[in-house]
């Protein structure tokens, strides 16, 4: 494990992940650092990337995949940037991710795609979103108390999803377009299909 994390530490773990984008995400690192300062009974580890390292929380710029997987498995709460793969990894390990999307108005990204994806994930029950330090603290405290929803309920049943997809494909192919009808007619008669 990284020097920022000691497996013998029995305190509950809050894992903050800002990702690998070259834009600093100092805002969320500062929020997690403030949380660590006021909650010494909680072990806060922040993967801070190019952001300023935390001073109260344990910080590491990057995490190798195996270490990240181990920390995700141990974490009581995962705080993530709005990157889809990080959100999915948290969700996959049974943690409802608390998401703080990067904001281009703060120079944290080139555009607002993380904000749009975070909104999409929240609307579908796949993430909880915090837009300020107070909301982040409240969600992390709820997570430490075991009061966050468990992942899984919002994920569609694969058999149901396949059935719905099949119905949609059948609906779309039931009434062929004019061009498709012409192509079929041409194929049966051996004639060339009209262009256009």
UniProtKB/TrEMBL annotation:
The UniProt record lists the keyword Cell wall biogenesis/degradation: no
Q: Name one GO molecular function term.
A: hexosyltransferase activity
Q: Which SUPFAM superfamilies match?
A: UDP-Glycosyltransferase/glycogen phosphorylase
User: What's the domain of life for this entry?
Assistant: Bacteria
Q: Where does the Glycosyl transferase family 28 C-terminal domain lie?
A: 67-122
What are the record keywords, sorted?
Answer: Transferase
Write down what this protein is called: Glycosyltransferase 28 domain protein
- The protein's organism comes out as Cellulomonas gilvus (strain ATCC 13127 / NRRL B-14078)
């Amino acid at each position: 494990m990284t020097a920022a994390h000691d497996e013998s530490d029995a305190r509950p773990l809050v894992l903050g992940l800002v990702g690998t984008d070259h834009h600093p995400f100092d805002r969320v690192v500062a929020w997690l650092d403030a949380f660590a300062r006021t909650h010494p009974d909680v072990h806060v580890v922040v993967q801070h990337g190019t952001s300023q390292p935390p001073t109260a929380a344990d910080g590491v710029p990057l995490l190798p995949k195996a270490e990240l997987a181990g920390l995700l498995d141990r974490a009581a709460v995962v705080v993530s940037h709005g990157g889809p793969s990080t959100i999915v990894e948290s969700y996959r390990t049974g943690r409802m991710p608390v998401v703080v999307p990067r904001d281009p108005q703060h120079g944290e990204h080139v555009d607002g795609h993380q904000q749009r994806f975070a909104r999409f994930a929240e609307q579908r029950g796949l993430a909880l979103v915090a837009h300020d330090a107070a909301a982040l603290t409240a969600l992390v405290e709820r997570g430490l108390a075991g009061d966050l929803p468990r992942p899984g309920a919002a994920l569609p049943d694969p058999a149901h999803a396949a059935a719905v997809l099949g119905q949609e494909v059948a609906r779309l192919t039931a009434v062929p377009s004019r061009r498709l009808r012409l192509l079929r007619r041409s194929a049966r008669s051996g004639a060339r299909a009209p262009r256009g």
